[in-house]
Design a protein that fits this description.
By secondary structure, this protein is α/β, with parallel strands linked by helices. The protein has a single domain (6-204), classed as Metallo-beta-lactamase, Chain A. The protein contains 6 helices and 14 strands.
Amino acid sequence: MSEVLQVTQVAVGGFDHNFSYIILAADGECALVDPTGDTGLLRQKLAEAGEIKPRYILLTHSHHDHTAGIPAVKKFFPADVYAHPLAGYPGQRSLAAGEWLPLGTSGIEVMYTPGHSPDSVCYLLPSGGGIFTGDTLFIGCCGYCEPEQMFASLQKLKTLSPAHIIYSGHDYGDVAYETLGEQMRRNPCLTPADMRQFKKALRDI
């Protein structure tokens, strides 16, 4: 059975209440998601984690507020940048939908979720772990979007286990994170059953 990966949510500030994330395996293999904002705080949190082995820098999408910290972070976390092919980050390794990224005895699955941007992806941990949603899904709302693509992407997320924890790219909600099941109950962007209702929800947010 694969291990449960440890997740640290870091309120890095950034351009607009950004979150970055540290994903750590028992053997020290480590991934960073959307490093930005106060990279000194990320460095501190990594030092507190002990002996680590940098494995991945993962981008949910290429908008500058999610990538601004990469040059500074690579000085103390020398890992390759992974992103959707459309992200176009210099030197990145491109990801395919459904790709599995091994980490420790577990791993991270790539979900293609366009809508906020053409290169948007979510990163899924197994066994009811976290979903790193970037600007696809926030606590209580979703990112600004192309509605048809976003609605389809949110429908994909709704097929996942409700036990998964939503770890989004910005601290916009009344809590920092919450289960998908709870968000499906109270997030007005997840409750609509069709496009008409979804577009109305977007107008009302």
